[in-house]
Amino acid sequence: METWFWKYPLKYLLFSKKFIIAVDKNKIQNIIIGCLKEYLESQDIEIELNGSTPLFSSESVLDSMGLVNIIIDIESRLLDEDLEVTLASEEAMSRTKSPFRTISTLTDFVYKKLEEKNDE
Q1: What CATH number does residue 74 fall under?
Q2: What does the DSSP 8-state code read for residue 119?
Q3: 37 in a domain, yes or no?
Q4: pTM of the shown model
Q5: Which pLDDT band holds residue 77 (cuts at 50, 70, 90)?
Q6: Is 56 left (phi over 0), alpha (psi -120 to 50) or beta?
Q7: Is 3 part of any domain?
Q8: Contact (CB, 8 A) for 87 and 110
Q9: Total domains present in the chain
Q10: CA distances (Å), 102 to each of 16, 32, 46, in order?
Q11: What angle do CA 77, 11, 22 make, to 5 degrees?
Q12: Radius of gyration, CA atoms only, the chain
């Protein structure tokens, strides 16, 4: 039997072969911010987090290992929400503009990956 999530606006529903997955960019961004916040707290770093917060650049507080940890945490949290996506892909790494520049660019990348997955 299919499960329907009537409480979500239709523009935020992604259809899969078995059921509807309700997801919106705010939910994705909150997951990313939550993972980043936990990581930064474990490193005794306090900064304000929002969409324009740099993730991996010369202005970021993350090094390459920090980014890897964040990516793994985000993938795991998304999977907990039944949203399976691979962030460390050849596509992501070969882009001229990295999806890991800011929280907003990563949010957009995750959202697009989920849309693509559900179009399959």
Answers
A1: 1.10.1200.10
A2: H
A3: yes
A4: 0.78
A5: very high
A6: beta
A7: no
A8: yes
A9: 1
A10: 28, 10, 17
A11: 30
A12: 15
Structure tokens at 40: 């930064």
For the stretch 21-64, pLDDT in tens is 557 899 999 999 999 999 999 999 999 999 999 998 888 888 98
Q: Residue 28 to residues 21, 43, 65, 67, 113: CA-CA distances in angstroms? A: 13, 23, 22, 17, 12
Residue 19 has pLDDT above 80, yes or no: no
What does the angle CA 75 – CA 16 – CA 106 come to, to the nearest 5 degrees? 30
Closest CA relative to residue 113, chosen from 95, 18, 45, 96:
95
Residues 77-106 have a mean pLDDT of 87
Position 1 in a domain: no
Domain extent, residue 108, equals 24-119
